[in-house]
Amino acid sequence: MTALTAPLLVSAAPPPPAGVDVSVTITNLRNQDGVVRACMTRDQSRFPRCQDAAQGYRSVIDAGEARVVSFHNVPPGTYAIAVLHDENGNGRADRTLGMMPREGFGFSRDAPVRMGLPSFDAAAIEIGGSPVRQTIRMRYML
């Protein structure tokens, strides 16, 4: 009796999709004090706070009107970005009278601020297989 041998088939799973870079140009900074903090998250419950974000960024402000921050190797999905001009560098968004922001802020898609902070959906951007560029205008209430 002859033995038949089937060729060994190796099935390799396709590699996970590589992430892309997301570049954010921040405009309308009123001064060069402190740092720019930016966060990007897929978690609606964490937006717009920058604590425990999927990706965070902190940068000293240098000369120039615009500041570019970059998030690297971002997997595909729906994200929202929040930026804070932490003018005194204390790591949080300062408020006056407990409500009104004292420092500058902004959101992806330049989501509008009306009677409160924008929703995740208002700031949501889709990340796919190509690099993404966003421009966020810093807003100051005071």
Summarize the structure.
Helices cover 3% and strands 39% of the residues.
Q: How is the topology of this model organized?
A:
Blueprint: E1 20-27, E2 35-41, E3 55-60, E4 67-74, E5 77-86, E6 95-96, E7 100-101, E8 104-107, H1 120-123, E9 125-127, E10 132-137
Parallel strand pairs: 1-10
Antiparallel strand pairs: 1-4, 2-3, 2-5, 5-8, 5-9, 6-7
Protein name: DUF2141 domain-containing protein
Pfam families: DUF2141
InterPro entries: DUF2141
Describe the structure.
- The chain is mainly beta.
- It has one domain.
- The chain contains one helix and ten strands.
- It has one helix at residues 120-123, and strands at 20-27, 35-41, 55-60, 67-74, 77-86, 95-96, 100-101, 104-107, 125-127, 132-137.
- Strands 2, 3, 5, 8 and 9 form a five-stranded antiparallel beta sheet that branches.
- Strand 6 (95-96) and strand 7 (100-101) form a beta hairpin.
- It is globular and about 45 Å long.
- Mean pLDDT is 81; it is low at 1-11.
Count of extended strands: 10
Largest sheet: 5 strands, antiparallel
Unreliable sequence segments: 1-11
Shape verdict: globular
SSE pattern = EEEEEEEEHEE
**pLDDT average, as an integer?**
81
Q: What is the structural class?
A: mainly beta
Task: Estimate percent helicity.
Answer: under 10%
Q: What is the CA-based Rg, rounded? A: 21 Å
Fraction of residues in β-strands = 35-45%
Total domain units:
1
Span between termini? 90 Å
